[in-house]
Amino acid sequence: MRKILSIDFDIIMYPCIKLYNDKVSGDANPTQLWEYLDVEHDIQEFICYDAKTLLSLAVLIKTAMRNGAKLHLITEHQEIIDKLKANENYDEETFIISNIDFHHDIWYRPEDKNMLVTFEEYNCSNWLGLLYLHNKTEGIHWIKAANSPMFADPDHNPSEIFTSVTNLNEFMANTDYEFDDIYFCLSPQWVPYKFHHLYTLITALVEEEVNTNDEHCNECE
Questions:
Q1: String of b and e for 29-58 (b: at least 16 CB within 10 Å)?
Q2: Which of 16, 34, 102, 163 is at 20 to 30 A from 22, Cα to Cα?
Q3: Which string of DSSP letters, residue by residue, matches 8-62?
Q4: Which of 16, 6, 5 has its CA nearest to residue 192?
Q5: Which residues lie closer than 8 Å to 2 by C-beta, 6 or more apart?
Q6: Pick from 141, 149, 147, 146: which is nearest to 171 by CA?
């Protein structure tokens, strides 16, 4: 069993994400999408991110890495499946997944669920549903924003799927920061280009600090 921390960077956009969330699809070309949103909806001046959430993510990633977690950078969230499957032990493995995300990523439409059942095809909106339906999860913890749309499917009670649903503050107060892997996803369809540098900045600063501290520890041995 592996403990996975999955972080979707779109969580920092929760103050304004509902301005454009229903206009976005996971298979959209990010450049064309944001050009369309700029022209048709003129929302750039209203788009903002939550600085406190941004800083909390940095602390969380740094602390987990200091405890031995390996950081993996991905662009779109479904890439996590390819990364997990690349492990030669994937067929025998199960996962406890803590997913920090504005979206729950189980499935939103019946066709997304049917895609999983019939063709085992997945995307950024149902990758976690794939692991659930294939009995690859021993726990799914969803760390959501206050305004995240809840999971809704008349055939599935959320309590059957989620071990817990909480917020970032509560999660950080109660986690042991012990994870095997961290998957940090940019999600360019939901994060405007003008904020992509924040993703790069966080990863660079965290990796530099962790590496520097490790070097200092080695010098002291």
A1: ebeebbeebeeeeeeeeebebbeebbebbb
A2: 163
A3: EGGGGGTTTGGGTGGG--TTS-HHHHHHHHHHHH--GGG----HHHHHHHHHHHH
A4: 16
A5: 93, 94, 95, 96, 180, 181
A6: 141
CB contact at 8 A, 111 and 159: no
CA-to-CA separations, 154 to 120, 132, 157, 169, 206, in angstroms, rounded? 21, 17, 7, 30, 42
List C-alpha distances in Å: 141 to 7, 23, 137: 12, 27, 10
User: Each residue of 138-184: pLDDT tens digit?
Assistant: 999 999 999 999 999 999 999 999 999 999 999 999 999 999 999 99
CA-CA distances (angstroms) from residue 108 to 112, 123, 128? 7, 11, 12
Residue with tokens 């990364």: 83
* Percentage of the chain lying above the pLDDT 70 cut: 96
Alpha-carbon span 59 to 45, nearest angstrom: 29
- Phi and psi at 165, nearest 5°, equal -130, 120
Q: 185 has which bridge partners?
A: 8, 74
Say whether pTM exceeds 0.90. Answer: yes
Q: Which amino acid is located at 70 in the chain?
A: K
Question: Strand 2-8 and strand 181-185: pairing?
Answer: parallel
Chain position carrying tokens 């659930």: 132
> What residue has token string 């909106």?
125
> What is the spatial distance between Cα 166 and Cα 142, in angstroms, rounded to a whole number?
6
Do 173 and 52 form a contact (C-beta atoms < 8 A)?
A: no
More confidently predicted of 111 and 209: 111
